[in-house]
Amino acid sequence: MTKEEIMEAVENAEAIDSREIEGRHYDLYTIKADGNEISVIDNYDYGKERFTYVMGDCTQVLKNLDAVENGTAELHEVAEIY
In this structure, how many other beta carbons lie within 10 angstroms of the beta carbon of residue 12? Predict the structure, then answer.
């Protein structure tokens, strides 16, 4: 799956969890990628650069953004992986 396909899937999905973390807005999505479910974390604020992340361990699917908020989630930008 390409970065563009991941971004398109996120645009067409409903967020599982959304919250403000350190002044930025985060949305969590679970999408199908290459036959597996993966967590995608979209980080954006209007007027600021948008970052989209996947888990370092793509087998781990998040139920909420707790691991992102407390800093225990190993995140990689989609551009680094796909």
Answer: 9
Please tell me the pTM assigned to this model: 0.85
- 68: phi then psi, degrees, rounded to nearest 5: -70, -45
Q: What is the DSSP letter of 35?
A: T
CA distances from 56 to 14, 69, 71, 80 (A): 22, 16, 13, 11
Digits of tens for pLDDT over the chain (82 positions)? Answer: 888 898 899 999 999 999 999 888 999 999 988 888 999 999 887 777 888 888 877 778 999 999 999 999 988 888 766 5
